[in-house]
Amino acid sequence: MVTRLQHLTLAGPAGTIEAVLHEREARPHELTAVVCHPHPMYGGTLHNKVVHRVASTLHEMGAEVLRFNFRGVGRSEGVHDEGIGELEDARAVVQWMRTRYPGARLWLGGFSFGAWIAARLAASDPRIERLILVAPPVTRSGFGVLRHCAVPKLVIQGSADTVCPPADLEREFPQWAEPKTLVMVPDASHFFDRQLGPLGSAIHDSLAAAARGAA
Hints:
Low-confidence stretches: none
Number of strands: 8
Strand content: 25-35%
Number of domains: 1
CATH superfamily: Alpha/Beta hydrolase fold, catalytic domain
Order of helices and strands: EEEHEHEHEEHEH
């Protein structure tokens, strides 16, 4: 399997968007994914180690994966927009993936702030097949859209997360619409320090069959 890592500049609603694409040279491309990074005001970029691990795991499972910088981050143009413009950035990136891989299934993932963006986009776009949320900030941002969103959801949470405490998620998660799965990674902090391996395993073990189209 020959893969390549491409550094791209995409057109976005606030100007250009910096992105990195993990792509196989072989075709057909049947599964794609977009991964959103954590909060730009706290150092979040497409190079974040959790975002990279999510993207690389999905790529190993057979997906063509794009991670990108929200407006005002890295070489992406524009300024931070409190999640409003960032949602439109993500929407533009998802559309770019659909144009590049017509007919392919599309999954959407996000870490922390990126999980909030991904959740709102998935709730408004029925063509997104599956949602992957890592450490969603359920008390800092509104996730009420997931109470009526039927897209399958995989939620991964570190048991030692002090930024987004698991107790907060455990109160919110039961209110979200099925189908949904919550995986707790023992001893993992918000940034999954020394626990990136278990994070990748949680994604693989939960979604390998779905990636193959078996579920």
